[in-house]
């Protein structure tokens, strides 16, 4: 959940996973005391939740001695906290956050919905892919990203943002974003034959609604949608990195 501009360059959720595109010519008013208290609590809880997922992954790896099939060790908290991001996006899109941070509603919605979609409509629904290494790929990328992001928002709201967290937020995406997207695409690809064989979520004609839907084709279209969106967002994040970190360096030199 995005914080006000103090110490964070005034960026939205998308800067670490999916980019925002609008730049505001004037400083926006920050949240009030009650809203700030809520946001701090929310971000602390979400940081703790993703830390639980990280610890669960490490413990499962140490217990098994293998990174294969670690998904089952963190399945429940992953579903809970990833789905919990829907509340964040509702507030960002429909409530007061548009008045706090610059944000592209479409791109922000794409990020959260794509992750919730991967969690429920692919990984949960197609159980055969849960043992795929690609699932661990995007889970690890999401986990590291979210721990950094929610920590960033928490410290920004408290007007005490350590440079290390800011640097991590605007640097580690260089590896984590392609890593996460690769895991997502590979998982969808792995699900395709099982979806085609089972007819999962597909609706065939004839029926009383005179409507058909092929989930297999839909998944292919979802994969194709990454092609125009990924480069745009990735280069936007690189631009944000140069702007935010160079501004920080200039500020340090002037002190």
UniProtKB/TrEMBL annotation:
Task of the protein: Catalyzes the third of the four reactions of the long-chain fatty acids elongation cycle. This endoplasmic reticulum-bound enzymatic process, allows the addition of two carbons to the chain of long- and very long-chain fatty acids/VLCFAs per cycle. This enzyme catalyzes the dehydration of the 3-hydroxyacyl-CoA intermediate into trans-2,3-enoyl-CoA, within each cycle of fatty acid elongation. Thereby, it participates to the production of VLCFAs of different chain lengths that are involved in multiple biological processes as precursors of membrane lipids and lipid mediators.
Record family assignment: Belongs to the very long-chain fatty acids dehydratase HACD family.
InterPro entries associated with the record: Tyr_Pase-like_PTPLA (IPR007482)
Record keywords, A-Z: Endoplasmic reticulum, Fatty acid biosynthesis, Fatty acid metabolism, Lipid biosynthesis, Lipid metabolism, Lyase, Membrane, Transmembrane, Transmembrane helix
Pathway(s) this gene product operates in, as recorded in its UniProt entry: Lipid metabolism; fatty acid biosynthesis
Transmembrane segments: 37-62, 100-123, 135-158, 170-195, 215-235
Membrane topology note: Multi-pass membrane protein
Organism: Psilopogon haemacephalus
Catalytic activity: (3R)-hydroxyhexadecanoyl-CoA = (2E)-hexadecenoyl-CoA + H2O; a very-long-chain (3R)-3-hydroxyacyl-CoA = a very-long-chain (2E)-enoyl-CoA + H2O
Entry's localization field: Endoplasmic reticulum membrane; Membrane
Protein name per its UniProtKB record: Very-long-chain (3R)-3-hydroxyacyl-CoA dehydratase
């Amino acid at each position: 959940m995005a914080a006000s501009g103090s110490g964070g360059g005034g960026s939205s959720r998308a800067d670490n996973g999916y980019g925002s595109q609008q730049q505001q010519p004037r400083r926006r008013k920050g949240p009030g005391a009650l809203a700030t208290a809520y946001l701090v609590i929310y971000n602390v809880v979400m940081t703790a939740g993703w830390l639980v997922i990280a610890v669960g992954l490490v413990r499962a790896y140490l217990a098994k001695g293998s990174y294969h099939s670690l998904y089952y060790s963190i399945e429940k908290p992953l579903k809970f906290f990833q789905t919990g991001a829907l509340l964040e996006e509702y507030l960002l899109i429909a409530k007061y956050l548009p008045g706090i941070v610059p944000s592209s509603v479409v791109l922000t919605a794409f990020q959260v919905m794509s992750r919730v979609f991967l969690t429920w409509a692919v990984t949960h629904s197609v159980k055969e892919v849960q043992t795929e290494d690609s699932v661990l790929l995007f889970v690890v990328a999401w986990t590291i990203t979210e721990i950094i992001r929610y920590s960033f928002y928490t410290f920004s709201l408290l007007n005490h943002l350590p440079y290390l967290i800011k640097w991590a937020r605007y640097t580690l995406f260089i590896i984590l974003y392609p890593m996460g997207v690769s895991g997502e695409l590979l998982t969808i690809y792995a699900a395709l034959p099982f979806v085609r064989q089972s007819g999962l979520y597909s609706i065939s004609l004839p029926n009383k609604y005179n409507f058909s839907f092929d989930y297999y084709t839909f998944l292919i279209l979802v994969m194709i949608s990454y092609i125009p969106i990924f480069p745009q967002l990735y280069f936007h994040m690189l631009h944000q990195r140069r702007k935010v970190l160079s501004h920080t360096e200039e500020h340090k030199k002037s002190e």
